[in-house]
Structure formats: C-alpha cells, structure tokens
Design brief:
By secondary structure, the chain is of the alpha+beta class. About 60% of the residues lie in helices and about 10% in strands. The protein has helices spanning about 10-30, 50-60, 65-80, 90-105, 105-130, 140-220, 220-250, 270-275, 295-315, 350-360, and strands at about 280-285, 320-325, 330-335, 365-375, 375-385.
Length: about 400
Amino acid sequence: MAVRLPRPHRFDVHVAPGGLLGGLLLWGLGLATRPHTEPYVLLPGRWPVLLPLFVMAGCELLRRTAPRIALLTGTAAIAVDVLTQGNLVTVLMYTDLMYAAVLYGPPASAHRIPRITGLLSVAGTVVPFALWREPEALLIGVVTGLVAFAPAATGLIVRNHRDAAVAARLRAEQTALLAEMDRTQAVTAERARMARELHDMVANHLSAIAIHSTAALSLDDPKTSQEALVVIRENSVQGLSEMRRLIGILRDSSGDTEPAAAPTLDGLGALVEGARTNGLDVTLDVAHGTVPAPFELAAYRIVQESLTNALKHAAPGRVAVSLTQRDGLLTVAVTSPYGDRDGPSAPGSGAGLVGMRERTALLDGTFEAGPEDSPDGKIWVVRAALPITDIVEGDTA
C-alpha cells in the first residue's frame, strides 16, 4: 500500500525553491565548501554536489507536515554531501530541517533529538582528538554542534515557549468560561430569588383583592360591597408597601430609597390577622426560640404562601398554622380543609408550591404538600422542616 505524504505547508512551498535557487547560484559561481583535493572528497567534481542539494530542497517541502521523514532523508543527503565538494546552502537547509523536526515533530522526538545531537557533538570532539592528537580534530565536534545540536536546541526552546503560550491561552479561556458560567448561575439564582420574593409579597394581597372585588361585583348588597372595598383598599396599601420594599432591595445602596426590614416570625400574628380579615378562619400556634434571619424569612414566606393558597383553594373550614422548634429543627405546618369545588376563588400560576420547595431546599430542609386524612375529614397539609444551622445572614433569601 502506497504511503501518501501530506500536502506541504504554504510557507514550505516558498522555502524549498528559495533554498534550491540559492544553492544553484553558489554552484554556478563555483563556490564549494571544500576543495576537490581533500582526501575524504570521494565524489570530486561539480555535478555530484547537485544530488544532495536537490534532495535537501525536496525535504524542505516536508519540514512541517512530515518532519521526521524530512530529517531522516536530509541526514542521508548531508552524508552524501560530505563526500562531495559540498554546498553551503545544503548545510543550511539541513540545519533548518533539524530545527523543524524538533519544533513541529512529536513530543518524544522533540526531546530525543537534542540529546542525540548533543552526544554526537561531544563524541565528535573527544574521539577524533583522542585518535589523532591534533587540535584541528576538535573542529569536527564544533561543526557537528553548529550543524546539528544548535538548531535542535533552538527548536526545543521555541517549542517550549510555544507550548507555554498555548497552555496559558487555554487556561485563560477556561478561566473566562468558568467566570461566565458563574455569572450565569449567579444571575439565574438572583432571578429565582427575586421571583420568589415578588410572588410571596404580592400574591397574597392580589388574591384578596381579586376575591373581594368578585364578591363586590356579584352581590347586590351595599354593606357587603362597602366591606369588600375596605379589604381591597387595605390589601392595595399593603401590596404597595411590599412593592416599595422590593424596589428598595433592587435599588443601588447609594439611592434615596432604603430597603425595608425583612419580615420575621414576630409578624406572623399580623399575617394571620390579615388572613382573618380576608375571610379565613385561622388559628396560630407558635413556639420557637432564637431563629437565624434566613430561617425566619423562609418560615414566614411559607406561612404567607400557604394562607394565600388556602384563601384561593381551600374548602370552607378552619385553617391551622403551627410553628415549632425542637432539637435544632424548625417545623412549619399549615393545614386547611380539602374538598371539591368548582375552581379557585382567584387564579393561580402554581408557582407558590415551587417557591416554598425552593426556599426549603436552599436551607437543606424537607418539604411536602398534599392531601391527608384526618379525624375531621380530608385536609391539605403543607409541612416544611428546616434544620437550623449557623449561617451568615443574607446568604439565603
């Protein structure tokens, strides 16, 4: 099976004919590296010089695409050139092949070639001097070092710098990619947090407004309409206050609006009282000690959203809110009557349960919501268990 060599690089296509033309120019001028009278010139005359010159020029075409083949073939050509009167361009092209073999060749060859040429340079210096005992013999090792070891060492240095630059660029790209991923995750997490805040703060008031406005429009009773309008106004004012708090959070700290304090468990009484005003029969049972702020906010929002869902979906009956703290576990439970009805009193998106589940997961707690059987009939239970730990305030919202 024939081996098909790769297509030469565009730069090498220019290097090869350039070297060949330079060698032909020296050959035409009769300039050789050695006189024909030297005893080791076994192929005297002008014409034998052309063979290694043409072969070396052909090897230059493969200096990048097949550097090992080019170097092996060039080594054979330089050996033939030594037997002739020689051509300086042939030697220069061989040094380029040595350099290219280290720079573009496989990693193993890149480290092996400088060691081999270094040993040959040392051997070319020591062995001839030991045999002939003449200072001129040292020139063999010097020439070998200049022709072979010097370009190989230069190629290794350039390759190491190139590999270091590539590695630095890859690290920079990876760092930029990781930074972009972190930024995207941070933006996504912040959007989810703000979505939970917006839903929990506004949904309760808007649901009450929707329910009481429906009652005011459907019942031809001035007293009922008046009471509904009072509730609608109260919820509108409270909703606007909550919206201002959210806007205060979104504003820059240098702005003229200071964000209001986050709700705490001490506000559960007012929250339940507001639910009673909206028409729910609610009981509250609270027993807790010191609770970190993130857990207070999560528990408050879970109760708030559960009361909103009870207002929209629960059957007539009592809604029970329970909050207990025992053995490092804060448990929130809200139960409401569960039964068939034509539809919710106000439209819902289903985001409430998702938000409660996300808040609980952020604090490594457990959350469950669904119907259960009880002595008083079927009820809907929302239950969250939050393991209280020492965390920095503001880490979770």
